[in-house]
Amino acid sequence: MSEYLPDVYVAFRERFGAVVQRQDALAAAVDAAGPLDERTLRLVKLGVAIGAQAEGAVRSNVRKALQAGVSVAEVEQVVLQGLTTRGFPATIAAWQWTNEVVGEGV
């Protein structure tokens, strides 16, 4: 699977390298701070992104979940969970973003 990085993300990382290094270190520390495995972390982060209706984060976390061995069916179940918590429009948006990522062949 190839790693897709939006141009704006790459440009931000290049412009603010020292800040991004610290952000990456914080993210690694947060991920390591508990007993959740990589697959579970990816599903949780996807759920948070859906709840925030953050398109880029949804797309990124779908990619990362699939790369961590999460199945498309598991990703779809996480998206569906947003229906009763976040609402129909947010779920449909997350469904669209997810399907676009899956359609890319990740």
TrEMBL record:
Signal peptide, first to last residue: none
Entries under Gene3D superfamilies matching the protein: AhpD-like
Cited Pfam families: CMD (PF02627)
Domain of life: Bacteria
Entries under InterPro entries matching the protein: AhpD-like, CMD-like
Domain annotation Carboxymuconolactone decarboxylase-like: ranges: 22-100
Name of the molecule in the record: Carboxymuconolactone decarboxylase family protein
Source organism phylogeny: Bacteria, Bacillati, Actinomycetota, Actinomycetes, Micrococcales
